[in-house]
Amino acid sequence: MPEPLIVDAPYPSLDGLSHDPFSSRIISAAYATPSGELNATLQYVYHSLNFAHCGYKKFADTLMRIAVAEMTHLDLLGEALITMGTQPVYTFQPPSQVNFYSAKFVAYSRSLVNMIEDDIVGEKHAIYGYERMLCRLKDGTLKALIVRIIEDEKLHLAALKKILDELTC
């Protein structure tokens, strides 16, 4: 598996987290919704496969590295949810057993340029969503995790813009 595309800084420890349904509801949107980490992971894998098939190995590798980073975020958010007393099920509002995540939310564009444009939009939405979470969260440990994830998302956005520039030149 390729190394993830992440900022060269450790993720904060989640040791300070405790039972917190309020914070769980806030971060669950980043877990398994159309703009969440699960969807991002699946979308980047899909796009990476298409880029590789079209002979753009370097771009395919970058997209797969971003997918691995998103998987790391998914794992960290899932760990935070379970530590705060919420089962990290793939629904829009864990621990609810309704409104399950669906892969229909993946952007299944056929054009490589459109794929990257979809990914750029996704990263912008993720950054915006995480920044909104910071305004509502009270727990410092959770805030530190979200700030650290935002750093990765900004790195992904820059990498995607570079790919788009190279594709459209």
User: What is the average per-residue confidence, as pLDDT, rounded to a whole number?
Assistant: 95
Order of SSEs, N→C?
Answer: HHHHH
Globular, elongated, flat, extended or rod-shaped: what is the shape?
globular
- In angstroms, what separates the terminal alpha carbons? 30 Å
CATH homologous superfamily assignment: Ferritin, core subunit, four-helix bundle
From the coordinates shown, what is the CATH architecture? Up-down Bundle
Largest sheet: none
What structural category characterises the helix and strand content? mainly alpha
CATH topology description: Ferritin
Q: Spans of 5+ residues with little confidence (pLDDT < 50)?
A: none
How much is the radius of gyration in Å? Answer: 16 Å
Overall number of domains: 1
- Helicity, in percent? 55-70%
The total count of strands amounts to 0
